[in-house]
Specification:
Elements lengths: L1 H19 L5 E5 L1 H8 L4 H5 L3 E6 L12 E5 L3 H12 L10 E5 L5 H8 L7 E6 L5 E4 L2 E3 L14 H18 L4 E4 L4 H21 L10 E6 L14 H8 L5 E4 L3 E4 L5 H6 L4 H18 L1 H6 L6 H9 L1 H27 L2 H13 L5 H10 L5 H13 L7 H7 L5 H6 L46 H11 L9 E3 L34 E6 L2 E2 H14 L3 E5 L2 E2 L1 H10 L3
Parallel strand pairs: 1-2, 1-3, 3-4, 4-5, 7-15, 8-9, 9-13, 13-15, 14-16
Antiparallel strand pairs: 6-7, 8-12, 10-11
Helix pairs in contact: 4-5, 6-7, 8-13, 10-13, 14-15, 14-16, 15-17, 19-20
Length: 572
């Protein structure tokens, strides 16, 4: 996987530093950006296996280890370079570390290089390498680059910004060793410019680094634009992870029960299993996990018994560590499901979701009257009212926002005028899924073990983002090149042959060539302007359906609130 390839490259850098200056285990020093990047794909135990004894923060107060060599893995900012040089310049008689290995995530500019040249640090440098790893993993197969891509049409084609974005994308492609065919949406000038810039930057990277990319079936980089689907970031996606981010505003950690914290990342196997499921499915799985845990774990069984034998007690003691780990993992997800369900009910979101789907599908003439009732209601929050108006405008259900704003009591109509800049008039409504039974359903209150969820009899169509049809057509081989032209054409499948010498003692003329068949090539989807949780779920589902690795890359993971905030910034 792309995540594994990135992890391997980072660990190889640590090995290379140690091999260059063997000795006692080294110290790894990182700034905030590189710490975020490394932790997204490497665990502490994995790092320690590669001759690292301690990890320190660059801008934190640190203990001196003058006899230990150090690896600085930093971003090439002047602040980080200055902090690194000060470790030696401010302690001339007692250096903080021994020999120094420096890795930067991107190119050092002249100012940063001159600062290093004028530092006492210079005499201790054993390694100085620009490694070009300028991205991090939000989750498995979801990559984020830290670049700003504004929605404002007047600012989107800034050449300097486009070059920065292209460099970050190329840093990812170079790290995983992909030289892809590049396709882009031709309705977006930004996609066209980015595709050309990424191609040129990748060629330059290949030439400078003297990289030879593998001659197997070509992977594909597919570039699409956020502004081509402005409905997806606004609707309520009713899967577990999306609701957690939307209605709870929870990202990486969920605090509950006083001082308890549930980690929401790839290291939490239950979270990974639940995050793309609809809420009813997620609660059913959590309930099954809880029952299985109680029935299989010795400690859990003992807690429910009145009399315990010494053997049972001994077996339980041996499993206490695993018991605590499993209990914490299940307890955290159950608490999160309960909080999500409670919030869903209190905000009356079932009715809101139903109206959203009707507005998008143009199924009923009464939709606008229903919308008017919601906009006048004192129970519905202003944020929800804004989202409903934006969805109606984006779906061409309202010609302009004045009357809706008046009904909702919203004076500032800036965001509504801004979304109209991305809406084509008289276009067909987005498609609705016909398989609706497993989608949005009514939540009931959880009992003491928070394990019950009963669907309503009303089936609600589920909005599928535009990206779903685009990717499905690509994977089926029917995506039209007129709409998605190539910058770089895909290479034809290559059968790599291994030639065997005829001078061997054992005759091998009958097996002179051995075909090496390539696997399904990777698909990398770059969503310019931010990707939604519904689109991440779609990529996950299609990857399993078509048996392809799909990596989604973007500059942001959008929630409805962040997208509305982005709309408000247009024109400022």
């Amino acid at each position: 996987s792309a995540k594994h390839l990135t992890q391997q490259k980072i660990l190889q850098l640590l090995d290379a530093a140690f091999e260059k200056q063997p000795g006692p285990p080294m110290i790894l020093v990182m700034d905030a950006k590189t710490a975020k990047m490394v932790s997204s794909c490497c665990s502490m135990s994995e790092i320690q296996k590669h001759n690292i004894t301690l990890v320190q923060g660059l801008h934190n107060t640190r203990i001196d280890f003058p006899n230990a060599n150090v690896v600085y893995f930093i971003s090439p900012t002047l602040a980080s370079v200055e902090a690194m040089c000060n470790d030696f310049d401010l302690q001339k008689n007692r250096p903080k570390y021994g020999y120094v290995h420096i890795y930067t995530t991107a190119r050092l500019d002249d100012t940063a290089m001159n600062r290093i040249k004028n530092s006492i640090l210079l005499n201790r440098i054993a390694t100085l390498v620009e490694v070009h790893i300028d991205f991090f993993f939000e989750q498995e197969n979801v990559v984020q680059i830290e670049c700003s891509i504004p929605l404002d049409p007047s600012q989107r084609l800034n050449n300097a910004n486009v070059a920065t974005v292209a460099n970050s994308v190329v840093s990812f492609l170079g790290t995983i060793g992909d030289f892809p065919a590049i396709q882009y949406s031709n309705t977006s000038p930004l996609c066209s410019l980015l595709a050309q810039t990424v191609h040129r930057t990748l060629q330059e990277y290949s030439r400078k680094k003297n990289v030879e990319f593998p001659l197997l079936d070509s992977p594909t980089l597919l570039i699409v634009d956020r502004v081509e689907d402005v409905i997806a970031p606004l609707v309520h996606e009713t899967t577990f992870q999306a609701l957690v981010a939307d209605i709870l505003a929870v990202d990486k950690k969920f605090s509950y029960g006083g001082d308890k914290v549930a980690e929401l990342n790839d290291k939490n196997s239950l979270w990974c299993e639940l995050r793309y499921k609809q809420m009813d499915e997620a609660i059913a799985v959590a309930q099954a996990k809880l029952k299985q845990f109680i029935s299989n774990d010795k400690v859990a069984q003992i807690q429910q018994q009145s009399e315990v034998s010494l053997k049972d007690l001994s077996d339980a003691v041996k499993g206490i560590e695993n018991y605590e780990f499993q209990k914490k993992m299940i307890d955290g997800q159950v608490a999160l499901l309960a909080a999500c369900t409670k919030e869903f009910e209190s905000d009356k979101l079932l009715e809101i979701v139903t109206l959203e789907q009707s507005l998008i599908g143009r199924k009923q003439n009464e939709d606008i009257q229903t919308l008017s009732q919601f906009l006048r209601s004192p129970i519905v929050s202003e944020d929800i009212k804004k989202r409903l108006i934006l969805i109606a405008l984006a779906a061409n259900r309202l010609p302009e926002p004045s009357a809706a704003c008046q009904h909702a009591g919203i004076a500032d109509r800036t965001i509504f005028d801004n979304i109209l800049k991305f809406v084509e008039k008289n276009v067909p409504a987005p498609e609705l899924s016909t398989t609706v039974a497993a989608r949005s359903r009514r939540f009931l209150r959880l009992d003491e073990i928070r394990a019950r969820f009963t669907p309503s009899t009303n089936e609600i169509p589920t909005f599928q983002p535009k990206l779903q049809s685009t990717l499905t057509r690509f994977l089926e081989g029917s995506l039209p090149e007129t709409a998605f032209p190539f910058v770089v054409l895909p290479r034809k499948p290559v059968v790599v042959t291994q030639t065997v010498s005829s001078r061997g003692v054992i005759p091998t003329w009958h097996i002179l060539t051995t075909p090496v068949q390539s696997q399904n090539p990777r698909l990398i989807v770059f969503v310019v302007g931010g990707v939604t949780h519904s689109e991440i779920r779609i990529c996950h589902e299609l990857a399993h359906l078509f048996h392809r690795q799909i990596v989604i890359v973007s500059n942001a993971i959008l929630t409805p609130n962040t997208f509305v905030a982005d709309l408000a910034e247009i024109g400022k």
